[in-house]
Amino acid sequence: MSAILNERTAAVLESIIRQYIARAQPVSSAAVIAECYLEVCSATVRNDMARLEEEGYISHPHHAAGSIPTEKGYRYYVEKLKNAQLPLDERLLINHLFHQIEKELDSWLSLAVGLVSQRAQNVAVVTSPRQAAARFHHLELVPLQDRLSLAVLIMRGARVRQQLVSFEKSLTTFELGVMSDRLNHFYGGLTRRDIEKSVRQLSDEETLIKDAIIKMMRIEEEQQNQEPHMEGLKFFLGQPEFMESARAQPFMDLVERRQLGEIIESENPPGGDIRVFIGQENRSPQIKDYSLVLGHYGLPDEAVGSIGVIGPTRMPYDRTIASVRYLAGVMSALVAELYGREPDNSGQ
Predict the structure, then answer these.
(1) What is the distance between the terminal CA atoms of the chain, rounded to a whole angstrom?
(2) Consecutive 10-residue runs of the chain (348 residues): their mean pLDDT?
């Protein structure tokens, strides 16, 4: 923190940021005094604002206008919001809503992205949790015809795949049950590569089933890069910054080319608390005019997804950070249920 940011100067800066976020209009010294109830004259506040401008925290868009925050000013403001929390009534409502919907990952993702976008009033993005590798959980063999069975593979995280298996001879329901029990015992908790390397004494029929298991797990791994859930485009395009289409065009290009999920994942490496990238802090050149608030949810050693908000640098950071943090915690708990594990909320 710069030495000039004493208690009053910090209050002036925070007032400018709050008012500019709320109204998207340059903030005058009179407006600062009125909002902060400062018992000083306007000349004193103007001097504080001049010093803040010299230090790069604010700027003047026009000679006679008020002040607006710079990216450095926003960064100072965000650092003081690291522990922002949603009000208790909103947290209770969110929990209630999640308990009203079907216990299925896609439904959770759709609800989460809608809740975050509404509270942040910007575009929210939630990516599906990605596993390092598919893991075998349980196998069922369902008889269909004399020589035809349906292999139903359940992987960790309640992911299900099915494949028809044709045998050289007829098998009874009992025989299919014995084989599925043996394979469940052999492969429970293993990855596809573990199963491929596994050396077990298998019958010809069990070998066919093993090959089907490996194929299903490979398909599951290849199809994990799903399109992210996105909502709130109307909020984004309604921001004053984007009334001119040129300002919003880079973002719209990302949406059209379906690159938004890839950008979000590249900006959000695993681990750590909520991350906030302001303007030029973003690594991806396509989003250097925007701000990103990003978090992780899930289980670090099993499956992890990203949840975040993208919008103008004039973003309501307090509500956005609080919303992303809380929904990340809720989603982590739900994913943990799928895996039968305790959620790791140490970073939330």
Answers:
(1) 25
(2) 72 95 93 84 89 93 83 95 92 94 87 96 91 84 92 85 93 94 94 90 94 91 75 92 80 84 74 87 89 90 86 96 95 85 56
What kind of fold does domain 136-222 have according to CATH? Enolase-like; domain 1 (3.30.390)
d(CA 59, CA 313): 14
In words, the CATH class of domain 88-128+226-339 is alpha beta
- Among left, alpha and beta (phi > 0; psi -120 to 50; other), residue 309 is beta
Axis-axis angle for helices 29-36, 7-23 (nearest 10):
100
User: What is the CB-side half-sphere exposure of residue 187 using CA atoms within 13 A?
Assistant: 36
* 202: Cα within 13 Å, side-chain hemisphere: 21
Give the chain's count of helices (H) and strands (E): 13, 11
